[in-house]
Amino acid sequence: MPRGLVVVLVASSLLTATPATALPASFYADADVRPNGAVALVGDSLTFAAWGELPAVFARKKWGPFQLEARSGRKINTTLATATSGVDAVRRIRGGGFDPELWIVALGTNDVRSTYDKPGVAAAMVDAMMAEIGPNHDVVWINVYLRDSPVETNAFNEVLRRAATRHSRLTIADWRSVVVANPLWVNDDGVHLNLTGSRARNEFVARVALAPGCDGEPAGAPAANPAMVAVAGAGAPAQRLCHR
Description:
- The protein has a single domain (5-231), classed as Rossmann fold (3-Layer(aba) Sandwich), CATH 3.40.50.1110.
- Helices cover 30% and strands 15% of the residues.
- The chain contains eight helices and eight strands.
- The longest helix has 17 residues, at 150-166.
């Protein structure tokens, strides 16, 4: 394969069983090898929001090769008429021959309200996604923020935190704390972000799996924003991952 960027904007017909009315989706593949190694990102509309700038952020953070896959309205493991699920996205990426050790999952926002009053359902969804990615993989999961549903948001993020105690290679990245500290990033719907917020999220997602020193910073240097440190399960120390 020639060196350079391989860019594919995925039409609905390229995703499994998606009608012409499917919500916006995109796929981006970069084949260049870079120091921090291979990574795949699966996301929803929050990932899609500033999509045109996201690949450059991953390249600047020295990830590569990488594949990014986002679809508006995406749930973790429920396939809708208008949106493939996160599980579907993992299968699609792996079916194309790409299976990096590190996966970033930026999902859950569309599952918060529907799982809140159903004990065990959200945990089962997270476990299903982890099972699909499979053993011998590290997973960084971006937690969620819905301004107008704080109780439901906290419950879902607690499910993620507990999942990190069951899955030893799962790390939860605390996006909620970042956006709470920056309320002007949030649009009127209380979920989606303006351009400033979307750009900040891109930086967060691309950086959060990097250990200090992995992206050209001196070893031991603090993160630019302390809230960007990935935090694991109950009683576990904060950790950052680096994949070369």
